[in-house]
Design brief:
mainly beta, Neuraminidase, 6-stranded antiparallel β-sheet, single chain
Length: 385
């Protein structure tokens, strides 16, 4: 079942001049939420600066050079990805532009570009640039795509980006989950976070691997989230023998968002791959040198997470009703500090969300409408809403 991971990557691509393409209609403001910015081209990860400025990873609008993507068909590449700042009045200020973006189909949807980011203590952004396929396909891209897609970069506004780690090359060289039944060589640099010891944690959603990157750029494997066996979907109209054991198939894990917890462990969301079972996604707690453990479960297609000031964990679902349903209504869940039963705190109006961040005052920011190459939004939920 080679397409098990590829279908997972397709889900992530449906979730990977700069940033502003306001030609699509703006969705209605969800109850309880405030639209703080709209007209964004594929907004993904969010991060807050020390002064409260919100920064957004923008996946872009693709470009004019088109090719046949090995998984997703027509794809057009350009340099429309980057990073923007959102002013307190909703003004969108481009900070970093000219990064690679690939968008799919005649309508240039589902862009892949900058996926997640954080602002380092030295004022530089650390960001992942997605890929979504076998590493060798980037060799045929224009120079900026060939050099930057599938990597973790360091970039300062006004300066050229510097690759600090090549996750796609690491996947091609070692394929850490190669013992899994559906393992192929695929890479999609996605979540990224600053570790307590000053190193960088990065999630390869295609390679099912969490890496640590030290100050010299050396990669080491922190954890591999292996495939699990799940019941195969029942074909429509089938009448299975009720006495038969369920048919099991391997499901990819697909790690997405990553955050450092109050206890110093890495917490990682799991999108899952096909068949994307309801309630089949989880948040993993990862301590370097130990086996990963499930911290919270029962989610569906989760893409990002963030901790509140009180240690509660906020978990963001891309599609509460499963991606294959076509219903891209997401969900926001809260897990009590220290673990416990997740409680859904929002869903209506969260359409295909992709990134979450929490301000010190408790305001929750979420990026939504992420498959659009224009019309993406940033929503805010005030404390106590």
């Amino acid at each position: 079942m080679r397409n098990g991971r590829r279908r997972a990557l397709g889900a992530l691509v449906a979730i990977g001049a700069l940033g502003i393409a306001g030609v699509l209609p703006v969705a209605a403001q969800p109850p309880g939420w405030t639209i703080v910015a709209d007209g964004l081209a594929g907004p993904r990860g969010l991060t807050l600066g020390p002064d409260g400025t919100l920064y957004v990873a923008i996946s872009g609008t693709g470009g004019s050079e088109c090719f046949d993507h090995p998984v997703f068909g027509k794809a057009c590449v350009g340099t429309s990805s980057g990073i923007v700042a959102i002013g307190t009045d909703g003004t969108i200020v481009p900070l970093v532009s000219g990064l690679p973006s690939v968008a799919f189909g005649d309508e240039a949807k589902n862009p892949t570009g900058v996926s997640h980011l954080f602002l380092g203590p030295d004022g530089a952004f650390i960001a992942t640039v997605g890929l979504g396929g076998e590493p060798e396909y980037r060799d045929g891209l224009p120079v900026v795509g060939k050099e930057l897609m599938g990597t973790v970069i360091r970039v300062v506004p006004g300066e050229a980006p510097v690759v600090i780690a090549d996750l796609a090359a690491a996947e091609a060289a070692t394929n850490p989950d190669q013992g899994d039944p559906t393992s192929t060589i695929d890479s999609n640099a996605y979540g990224v976070a600053l570790a307590p010891d000053g190193s960088i944690w990065a999630a390869d959603a295609g390679g099912n691997t969490i890496y640590a990157i030290d100050a010299s750029g050396t990669l080491s494997v922190v954890a591999v989230l292996h495939a699990t066996m799940v019941p195969a979907p029942t074909a429509p109209g089938a009448s299975p023998d009720p006495a038969a054991s369920p048919v099991l198939i391997p499901m990819q894990s697909v790690p997405t968002g990553i955050a450092a917890g109050p206890d110093g462990a890495a917490y990682v969301t799991q999108l899952t791959g096909a068949p994307f079972p309801l309630g089949g996604a989880a948040v993993w707690r990862i301590v370097p040198g130990e086996e990963p453990t499930v911290y919270a479960s029962g989610f569906t297609n989760v893409v990002d997470l963030a901790f509140d000031a009180d240690g509660s964990l906020l978990v963001l679902e891309y599609a509460t009703n499963r991606i294959p349903s076509g219903d891209l209504t997401g969900g926001l869940w809260r897990v009590p500090a220290g673990g416990g039963t997740p409680v859904q705190i929002a869903s209506e109006g969260l359409t295909a969300p992709g990134g979450i961040e929490v301000a010190p005052d408790g305001t929750i920011y979420v990026s939504t409408l992420t498959p659009r190459s224009g019309g993406g939004q940033i929503l805010a939920l005030a404390p106590g809403s």
